[in-house]
UniProtKB/TrEMBL annotation:
GO terms of biological process kind: methylation
A Pfam family of this chain: Methyltransf_28
Record's protein name: SAM-dependent methyltransferase, MidA family
UniProt keyword terms in alphabetical order: Methyltransferase, Transferase
Species per Swiss-Prot/TrEMBL record: Janibacter indicus
Transferase found in the keyword field: yes
Domain of life: Bacteria
Gene Ontology MF term list: methyltransferase activity
Keyword Methyltransferase: yes
Length: 318
């Protein structure tokens, strides 16, 4: 167990600087897609875009905002499929990508939990896809006496235990992470994520706000926490030096959504289930069969395994 010695910064501070500071991971030229794939990239983005357009159609929404959108990969897929009457807006910490579809509006974001002014859109579907897991939060650990102490970290990733968790963070932990705590157990305090999501909701005049992320609920909190690093497509130790992504799963129930469901459930509701096309199609339309089979494979990738277990938190506004 780390000894009780104060070091340079809290995890929340070091995490923010490593991702969003000058030269931070998310400001690098290659963008997130240079290191890992998400459902908003590659062939899967086409299907996810179609599902989001169906959701917007069902809810009579005419603006789609993609928060923390990387370099606009999902927005490109949306631009190819969306009716010209649908307004598309992207926001991230970098300048507008030069090759982004002209119809996509762009708003520069300060990064982390801090949001730009989105202009209080009306009739908007606001998507935060894998955003909250990279909103830095305090990391706390139980010491030998059973006290939750904030974990501090140095540039190399070496950790020490700092002072006891502050009142507001301790109140959140008691309310939302109340599982039995043994020495060495960790809590990733989701108060900053709750505030970020609430800020996003408050910035919308009317519509539907959807956070999609790796997450957990009160019944399955990870006792050891989930903070981890990613670089070049592989998991690595979480070192806050700007050389890797830093992510931790989200306490999705503490966002107080109107609905909370898995990506598998959400996409199946929107008509995306990964079912294979009938074999008769292979005889009557071989090319059509192959195209349908590829689509089914992409849909299966979105609705099974790890992506299928993503959680969707939906909050209606107005």
């Amino acid at each position: 167990m780390p000894s009780v010695v104060r070091v340079e910064r809290t995890w929340e501070q070091a995490w923010h600087e490593a991702l969003y500071g000058e030269g931070g991971f998310y400001r690098r030229p290659e963008g997130p897609a240079g290191h890992f794939a998400t459902s908003a990239q590659g062939g899967a983005a086409e299907l996810l875009a179609g599902a989001l357009l169906e959701l917007a159609r069902r809810e009579s929404l005419t603006t789609i905002v993609d928060v923390a959108c990387g370099r606009g990969e999902l927005l490109e897929a949306l631009a190819e499929q969306a009716d010209p009457s649908i307004r598309l807006v992207g926001t991230d910490v970098v300048d507008r990508p030069a090759d982004l579809a002209q119809r996509v509006e762009w708003v520069r974001s300060p990064g982390g939990r801090h949001l730009p002014d989105l202009g209080s859109p009306t009739g908007a579907l606001v998507l935060a896809h894998e955003w909250l897991d990279v909103v830095p939060c305090p990391v706390a650990e139980v010491d030998d006496d059973g006290t939750l102490r904030e974990v501090h970290v140095g540039p190399s990733g070496a950790e020490r235990l700092g002072p006891p968790l502050g009142d507001a963070d301790l109140e959140w932990a008691d309310a939302w992470w109340p599982a039995p705590r043994e020495p060495g157990d960790r809590v990733e305090v989701g108060r900053t994520r709750d505030a970020a999501f609430a800020g996003l909701v408050e910035g919308v005049h009317s519509g539907l706000v959807v956070a999609v992320d790796y997450g957990h609920t009160r019944d399955d909190r990870p006792p050891a926490g989930s903070l981890v690093g990613y670089v070049d497509g592989a998991v690595c130790a979480p070192v806050p030096d700007g050389g890797c992504d830093l992510t931790a799963h989200v306490a999705m129930d503490s966002l107080r959504p109107d609905r909370l469901l898995t990506q598998r459930e959400a996409l199946r509701e929107l008509g995306l289930d990964g079912a294979r096309p009938p074999l008769d199609l292979a005889r009557s339309d071989p090319a059509g069969y192959l195209a349908a089979l590829a689509r089914a494979s992409q849909a299966s990738a979105l609705t099974s395994g790890s992506p299928g277990g993503f959680l969707w938190a939906l909050r209606r506004v107005g």
